[in-house]
Design goal:
single chain, mainly alpha, two-stranded antiparallel sheet, 3 helices, elongated
Length: 114
């Protein structure tokens, strides 16, 4: 049994920042849909909806990435604190075979006798 004693705060924050940024990109089509809805509203309100949609489309991935970084850093710090108090995650690891394993035994060719 292996135990994770600590997590690198900056590495966890960077990874979660990238993950959350990608999640923000998932919402991009929905914000673009908001922009396209401006065609169905009166002329005086259409510009506001369009501008709002563009701002959301640009800001969402950036805001998600920043929040992912902050949440990752705080989460890693809390994990390190709690792991010292009660122990970390316990993992059961299985050894991986090294190198290539032939599906059948390899028999060397016979040597010629002289």
């Amino acid at each position: 049994m292996y135990r994770i004693k600590s997590v690198g705060v900056l590495s966890a924050a960077k990874i979660l920042s990238l993950i959350y940024g990608c999640v923000g990109l998932i919402f991009l089509p929905f914000f673009l849909l908001i922009i396209s809805l401006q065609a169905f509203v009166p002329k005086d309100q259409g510009a506001f909806i369009g501008a709002f949609g563009v701002i959301l489309a640009i800001a969402a991935p950036i805001v998600y990435a920043i929040m992912g970084f902050l949440i990752g850093a705080v989460g890693a710090l809390l994990y390190n604190l709690f792991a010292k108090l009660v122990g970390g995650f316990e993992l059961e690891l299985e050894p991986r075979p090294t190198g290539l394993v032939a599906p059948y035994p390899i028999v060397p060719p016979p040597t010629p006798s002289v």
